Amino acid sequence: MEKAILGLDIGGTGIKGGVLVKGHLEDIRSIPTPAKESKEFILETIALFIESYLGYDIAGIGIGIPGLVDVEKGEVLGLANIPAFQHVELAKFLQERFAKPIFINNDANCFAIGVHKFGVGKPFKNIVGITLGTGVGAGIVINSHLYSGVYSAAGEWCSAPYLEHNFEHYCSGKFFHYYYDSKPKQLAKRAKAGDPEALKAFEEYGAHLGELIKHILFGLAPEAIVLGGSIRKTYPLFEASLKKSLSTFAYPTVLEHVQILLSELDETAIHGAVALVDVEPEIINT
């Protein structure tokens, strides 16, 4: 039996899993998250989901969650949209149940280390991964190591003040909802058909995202910034305005050495979760 790493993505609506065997992700499964149930019920649901993968020789389990985590203790401090899952010692519970090493982190941090180990970020030592969807998240990799900060809160530029609100308001799906009463996918379809209003929406969006990236460059100056999340698929519609915004960055030499890349991973959350697990290299590599 081949050794494998199990990765879980626990969200407010679903729990998704998959195993990495010799560098290949396989056996992707998902179940609904019992978000309104008790902490005990949710923990048992997660355990039973993990049990369904015990046909594999699991060397370790990585878990990404949309909330703050005490990475050292493996304690979930809060989980978005799941009221009962606050201050939960998830790692301790799972280690006692399965006697496997458990690694837990914020999902945006998982995205960053996932694209670094398995995606377009692999050639670089220093990257920032930005997820663009209903919200905005970011993770930081420095010298090929994930930097999580205190309680996995590093990279939370989404909450930094910007214009009348914060960066998330202008760089996520919220921007299209509040200012154009639409969703990115719908506006993208209109923009591709030449609709002036839709084209304007993405032009403005790219300018806002450029401002966010400039803030990141001032603080970290990474070699690459990798965009993920559903909105990345509309990149051709805002690429020009994004680059125009970046062109005003105060240090042109730094800008010349930063690559803006798009994540190509289909199962980014699972790749990120398995990337957390510290095991023998032959399990991760092909």
Automatic annotation (TrEMBL):
Domain of life from the UniProt record: Bacteria
Pfam families: ROK
InterPro entries xref list: ATPase_NBD (IPR043129), ROK (IPR000600)
Family statement drawn from the similarity comment of this UniProt entry: Belongs to the ROK (NagC/XylR) family.
Protein name: ROK family protein
Species this chain originates from: Algoriphagus limi
